[in-house]
Write a structure and sequence with these properties.
Chain lengths: ~290, ~290
């Protein structure tokens, strides 16, 4: 089964659990709306790629770890879109969750998706109980305080913040979770795999800045030009477009070099380089080819 | 060390983790504000009482389970108070979190408290890794979908709902988590302990309705008369005040009878009856004595 199919099945099973007997139907529908139809699924694909490189002896656990990370990512998007943050009207090419279901269900859907991530990990870990602790620590610390994605979002409410630290927390930490959790699910030591995720997170952040500057809304599925409009820091504003593209390529090379020794290192290196190339908007990808 | 001291220390250690190096200071302060000064801490006290009745051979794990449940309870209060739900101005006798810190930090503090609950359980479980899975399942399912407290809150966005089921999810499930998690932390089978928590959750809900009807705001630390104002179902509106008090006493007796066989059953029975008596507002408790 290919990685995308494994991820979609695992996410569908997770949402089916939330839709179980006794559940409030509109909240259940809001959760499904937040997770499907699929986005790029870049974090869970990364998680499965690393698990594969480490031998993937517990594929069900790796799938649940990847799905948990994607649920947490979706939860952060739903809450980031709320009126008190970005007040985004669209997401993934359709109305944002609070526009479609109202603000109360958007708050609750985010909360329920966060909890669901831990519910599915606890279920999957019955096949390898000793791996649950490292997996939960890796993923929990990458999402919560003091330096996970929620912390990163928290810096937007501070009078001053360090840009690199802000981006490392808000974006990088969930990429580091994806690589480290993939390793932990396969029984490898997760710590050695964080650097790869860190570099990919930085690359993703630069690519996001590039897409925000040069894509169109139809391709991106959400409004463009938000960085300039909200006076947010951006690699394109800072380095110019060619400089930002060069930075992205440098980070992709750093990422490929950061893969720890493992049975599938060579294949993983190829995946990493391909994935980072796919982050560019279509127009630039065609130019680059 | 008495139970209250154990709980406060464990909660302080949890918040100190969130305040660690790299954390955004205002979000960290908002989390501390949500958790201290203490409320009744009824759920973690219940968790420790059950762990004690089951032998409490891993006191650190029981304390973390109790603290995790309290963090999740505090998170639910912060989100319930948001403008899109109750828009409460006060909580525990001080301004609600969103009034004190603004709405973005209230959303994020709730999210971060949810994640923190799982972060501290993962850390505590290193002393008994095999207990982490049952503990996470018990607590995760009691908070998330399909039938945890978030699901209960979700029923408020439905056109129709079953009152008993709504209350069981919104209030009862975290009491059932407290009793079942106390057992799981001490290595006992959690399932047998849910009925006790269910009954106590019902008792607490009835007591809450009584307090909302007859307390004053100074005693309660939050506005009173909210059930009537928001047309919410209430045992007092349904049964009258004497009927509601009789119902509370019946539920306390049912709870005491639901304690499974265990070394400390007798002592636990006494705690349960004392705690349910403490749920009544001072004026009624004096009358009853």
């Amino acid at each position: 089964m290919d990685a995308v199919t494994r991820i979609e099945r695992s996410l569908d099973a997770a949402i089916a659990l939330a839709e179980g007997p006794g559940s409030p139907p509109r909240l259940a529908a809001a959760m499904r709306y937040a997770v499907f139809p699929r986005g790029a699924r870049i974090r869970p694909r990364l998680c499965l790629a690393v698990a594969g490189a480490c031998g993937d002896d517990r594929p069900g656990l790796a799938e649940s770890a990847g799905a948990a990370i994607e649920l947490l990512h979706c939860a952060s998007l739903v809450h980031d879109d709320l009126p008190c943050f970005d007040d985004a009207a669209t997401r993934r090419g359709k109305p944002s969750l609070h526009r479609a279901f109202g603000e109360p269900l958007a708050v609750l859907a985010g909360d329920a998706l966060i909890v669901l991530a831990f519910q599915i990990m606890a279920r999957a870990a019955t096949e390898a109980p000793g791996r649950l602790g490292p997996l939960m620590l890796t993923i929990g610390d990458s999402v919560g305080m003091p330096v996970g994605i929620v912390a990163g979002q928290g810096w937007e409410s501070e009078p001053r913040c360090d840009l690199a630290e802000y981006q490392r927390q808000k974006t990088g930490s969930l990429f580091a979770a994806a690589t480290a959790a993939g390793a932990a699910a396969a029984g490898a030591e997760p710590g050695a795999w964080r650097l790869l995720g860190d570099r990919l997170g930085e690359a993703y952040q630069v690519a996001d800045d590039i897409r925000d500057a040069v894509s169109d809304e139809a391709e991106l599925g959400k409004p463009i030009g938000q960085d300039a409009a909200h006076h947010r820091p951006s690699a394109v504003l800072q380095l110019g477009l060619p400089g930002a593209i060069a930075r992205l390529e440098g980070l992709a090379a750093d990422a490929a070099a950061a893969i720890p020794p493992c049975p599938g290192a060579e294949a993983l290196r190829a995946v990493i380089l391909l994935e980072t190339r796919r982050l560019l908007p279509r127009s630039l990808a065609v130019q680059a080819a």
